[in-house]
Amino acid sequence: MTGFRPVRTFGDGGAVADVDSLEEAHGLAAAVSAARHDGIDDVIVGHRSVTVVIDPTRADLAGVGQMLATTVPLPPGSATRPRIDIPVTFDGVDLDEVGHLVSLSPTRVAALLTGTDLQVAFVGFAPGFGYLVGLPPELASVPRRPTPRPSVPGGSVALAGGFAGVYPQASPGGWHLIGRTDMPMFDPESPPYSALRAGDIVRLRQADSVGTPAHSRSTGQRPTLRSDATRTVRVEDAGWLSFVQDRGRLGVAGLGVPRAGGADPYALRLANRMVGNGDDGAVVETTARGPALRFSVPAHVAVVGTAVVSIDGHEVPSGSVIPVAAGQTMTTGSEKGGLRSYIAIAGGIDIARVLGSRSSDVLSGLGVGPLRSGDVLGLGPPGRPSGRTRAIDASREGPTVRIMVGPDVFPSATFERLVSTTWEVGSSSNRIGVRLQADRPLAVPNLDIASRGMVTGAIQLPPDGQPIILLNDHATVGGYPVIATVVSADLGLLGQLGPGDPVRFGLVDLTEAVEGRRKRERTMDDAVMGWYPVRTD
User: Fold this and answer.
1) What is the pTM of this model?
2) Are strands 201-206 and 118-123 parallel, antiparallel or unpaired?
3) Where are the beta strands (DSSP E) in 96-148?
4) The pLDDT value given to residue 192
5) Cβ distance 206 to 195 under 8 Å?
6) What are 363-396's pLDDT values in tens digits?
7) C-alpha torsion angle, residues 339, 465, 167, 258 (rounded to 10)
8) Among the four 202, 285, 304, 391, which has the fewest Cβ within 10 Å?
9) Each residue of 192-216: pLDDT tens digit?
10) Is 25 helix (H, G, I), strand (E, B) or coil?
11) Would you call 103 exposed, middle or buried from its count of C-beta atoms within 10 A (0-12, 13-18, 19+)?
12) Cα 407 to Cα 429: distance, rounded to the nearest angstrom
């Protein structure tokens, strides 16, 4: 893609524009967001870039790239917000070490930080985590810790790699901890949700003492869900790891919020269509072994995947709508292939929305999280269910995952090794990412990669040379180089990969990726036949 500024494709579902300055990134993102182009799901500011995430069925990637290349950024100050003061007690466990690294006393470190206006370069890593730039030169040289901590308390103020930041919640982290604040950085129930947004001016203010941030206090296990709806389903056994998922959260990646949603979006949509729900209906996503659900009212259910399904202990056939009577229990057993199945109930799961979605994500903890035994879920008004599917699994067409090269440029030998190697899915994979492993890791060149917006399907290459394919709950920005990106037509395949599964990659270009997505959509449109009950005469 060519034009006013360089733009690179990010698979067939995204594009990244490289800019010359932070101010240009903020202005470009603001201009693109203000234009409200159809089919653009998210606009994410990076350190020297703007990433646009699209719906390939509604937006033309070439047109989006041309728009990114030629759009005139909005001028600075066109959306001015007041300076944000953050009270900080400088008593972090790494404050002395930071002072030693820069040959300053801890008191002088604190004085330098409180005497400087900082700017939010972008928000990512976790919801509300603002990357603050403008540090004094002495502190901008502080590197990341050689070994990240497995858990950093919420409210911790930290430095690393030319940035300052505040951890909104407890999470792993590799930055140096210099203090703490009790100012909430993210509240999913109160607009504007994030205390910091890209472009904000921030001043750290010395505070003698701060309390424990309300958002980081331990609240223990969440309460059991209790619905007052007239139609409900009770979770008798939660299975191994079951979530409520829909299509996910759109338009909030700029706040550092993952999209979430079904890891196999095609199976989720197919299950919804079978029972007469819209494509965005909330369903139960199962992992390895599904839940046992007891129904308070008659209902129609569809299960898409490879789980063994039974009603009151009697196995039922797959591929068609299942009628369930009041008081009956439906059990989804272990998967016979693939990792996840999707349970759609006519009317959809009706639980509270968080930032526009009923989905849960494992990175930031938004949503209700894994279902628990005893949860009672409400059901919406049912529509007319369909009959059956032509193929119960519309996501798997072969063992090879199709990829597009880039957006980063690697030596040809490295890319050839990527596509010629049979990788294995590692045991630490989850909804954040599919971690691949092989006896011979890839050689990682020393690329100068600034943190930028990420898309689902991006294949990151960390220093150990073992690729990570980003899934739905991935951080919205990342700094590892991306060697290739999985095409949107194969995202469902990614969601079905489990530990030990083999993975091979096949290279396609944008034209082939677009045709692959069109074929996928045609398959989806033809997958559901007739109306319930199915006629056999």
Assistant:
1) 0.91
2) antiparallel
3) 118-123, 130-133
4) 87
5) no
6) 888 999 999 999 999 999 998 898 778 754 444 4
7) -40
8) 391
9) 899 998 889 999 999 877 766 655 4
10) helix
11) exposed
12) 23
CA distances from 105 to 65, 86, 331 (A): 49, 22, 63
List of domains in the chain: 7-70 (3.30.1360.40), 84-214 (2.40.100.10), 232-389 (no CATH), 400-524 (2.40.100.10)
Alpha-helical segments (H) within 330-485:
412-420
Report pLDDT for 397: 47
Reduce the DSSP state of residue 495 to 3 states and report it: helix
Q: How is residue 208 written in tokens?
A: 């003698």
- Is there a contact between 321 and 330 (Cβ–Cβ < 8 Å)? no
Predicted confidence at residue 237, as pLDDT, reads 96
DSSP 8-state assignment for residue 317: -
3-state secondary structure of 165: strand
CA distance 337 to 494: 13
User: Residue 360 in contact with residue 260, Cβ under 8 Å?
Assistant: yes
The pLDDT of 504-527, averaged and rounded, is 94
Tokens 């299942």 locate to 322
For residue 254 the two structure tokens come to 């700029």
Q: What single-letter amino acid sits at 488?
A: S
Q: Report which residue type is found at 176.
A: H
CB 106 within 8 A of CB 96: yes
412 has a pLDDT exceeding 70? yes
Q: Is the peptide bond before 87 cis (omega within 30 degrees of 0)?
A: no
Give the integer Cα–Cα distance in Å for 154 and 181.
9
Phi, psi (degrees; rounded to nearest 5) at 304 = -110, 120
